[in-house]
Amino acid sequence: MPQLDPGPWFAIFLLSWIIYLTILMSKLNNFKYQNNPMLQDIKKENPQPWNWPWT
User: Fold this and answer.
1) Angstrom distances, CA of residue 14 to CA of 17, 36, 39, 53
2) SS3 assignment, position 10
3) Rounded CA gap, 27 and 19, in Å?
4) What is the DSSP letter of 12?
5) According to DSSP H, which parts of 7-52 are helical?
6) Tens of pLDDT along the chain (55 residues)?
7) Dihedral angle at the C-alpha atoms of 32, 23, 17, 33, nearest 10 degrees?
8) Rounded Cα–Cα distance for residues 12 and 19 (Å)
């Protein structure tokens, strides 16, 4: 049963995944974070009390 013999295709399979993981993933990671997130202001504004003119 030749389909159970991993010799001919297993080396090609491993080589293609090694190429995929090293070359393509490094190229794809360059596009992942183009805009760095900015820190938000930590200061909170104090709310002003409402002016109720009818009271």
Assistant:
1) 5, 35, 42, 77
2) helix
3) 12
4) H
5) 7-19, 25-29
6) 566 777 778 888 999 999 888 888 888 777 766 667 777 767 777 888 888 777 5
7) -10
8) 11
Phi (first) and psi of residue 47, to 5 degrees = -75, 140
Q: How far apart are CA 38 and CA 30, in angstroms?
A: 19
| End-to-end CA, the chain | 93
Amino acid identity of residue 26, one-letter, is S
Please name the residue that has the structure tokens 């002003």: 48
CA 34-39-40 angle, 5° bins: 125
Cβ count within 10 A of residue 7: 7
